[in-house]
């Protein structure tokens, strides 16, 4: 960039440089402000490749994909370099043209990219496949020696994360969990939210397991197990309990009666029995609970 600015008069070069410095400082945190500085630099020195590139990234970060593509193409014409090829393809995605992004992934320019650029191109191509709901193809696109390698590079976490995300979309959750874990392990800079995604998956698995326990408990004396995943109900105020009791039951939906005395809970399936079980005014337990003359009130702890 310094070399590019040497083509300008010194005073003008200094003005352009100041605006480019602000673009770099604000691009990640305040992209709209960075965009404003980039437009000033562009008005001052539109014939400088570094300025066109910086303006392209500022437009890209603010989702002005058409402007970004124009600036990237101009910078590429000026320099002859191919390093902007992946981000240009991603602009095509942003403009709703994923087919063009996929076509660009097969162009000769990709062979001119370094390893990081090639990985970036795979990420863009896989994203374009996902845009077209070609989820299995997205998985295949990301499968590469770079993905299989145990070495950690600046792009490793993002590649593993994208692969895990593609597996989720393809309905391969078990494999996705392993790759989110690998992405989290490689993500020392917090470039992804792999740890959060991993926690979400584990949380869903926990809930599923508790649901299975509840189903098993309905057919045995372990009705208490069906309450393991809702034990926080005990901490609710009486107002919440009153609202739950006041709702009209929908047969054959199961009704749940929380115990006001101890920690034990009992599930009742007969709506009339539930109404008898509760005193709606104070939610006190009736002294005796009967059904058809042969069901007695459950023992309480």
From TrEMBL:
- Annotated transmembrane regions: none
Give the domain of life. Answer: Bacteria
Q: Spans of biased composition, class Basic and acidic residues?
A: 292-301
| Gene3D superfamilies hit by this protein | Tetratricopeptide repeat domain
Q: Where is the composition biased (Acidic residues)?
A: 211-245, 269-291
Enumerate the residue ranges of region (Disordered): 211-301
User: Which protein, by its recorded name, is this?
Assistant: Tetratricopeptide repeat protein
Q: Which organism is it from?
A: Kitasatospora paranensis
């Amino acid at each position: 960039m310094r070399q590019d600015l040497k083509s300008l008069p010194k005073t003008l070069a200094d003005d352009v440089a100041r605006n480019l410095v602000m673009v770099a400082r604000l691009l990640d945190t305040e992209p709209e402000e960075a965009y404003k500085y980039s437009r000033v630099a562009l008005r001052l020195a539109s014939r400088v490749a570094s300025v066109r590139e910086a303006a392209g990234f500022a437009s890209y970060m603010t989702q002005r994909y058409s402007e970004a593509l124009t600036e990237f193409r101009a910078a590429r014409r000026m320099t002859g370099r191919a390093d902007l090829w992946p981000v240009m393809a991603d602009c095509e995605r942003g403009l709703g043209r994923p087919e063009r992004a996929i076509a660009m992934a097969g162009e000769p320019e990709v062979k001119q990219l370094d390893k990081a650029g090639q990985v970036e191109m795979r990420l863009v191509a896989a994203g374009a496949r996902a845009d077209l709901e070609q989820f299995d193809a997205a998985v295949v696109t990301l499968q590469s020696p770079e993905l299989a390698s145990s070495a950690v590079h600046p792009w490793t976490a993002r590649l593993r994360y994208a692969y895990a995300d593609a597996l989720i979309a393809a309905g391969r959750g078990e494999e996705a969990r392993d790759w989110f874990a690998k992405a989290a392990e490689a993500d020392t800079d917090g470039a992804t939210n792999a740890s959060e995604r991993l926690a979400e998956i584990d949380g869903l698995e926990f809930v599923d397991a508790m649901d299975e326990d509840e189903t098993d408990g309905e057919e045995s004396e372990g009705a208490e197990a069906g309450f393991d995943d809702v034990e926080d109900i005990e901490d609710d105020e009486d107002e919440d309990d009153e609202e739950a009791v006041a709702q009209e039951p929908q047969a054959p939906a199961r009704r749940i009666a929380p115990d006001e005395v101890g920690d034990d809970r009992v599930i009742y399936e007969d709506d009339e029995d539930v109404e008898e079980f509760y005193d709606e005014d104070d939610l006190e337990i009736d002294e005796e609970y009967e059904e058809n003359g042969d069901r007695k009130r459950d023992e309480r702890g």
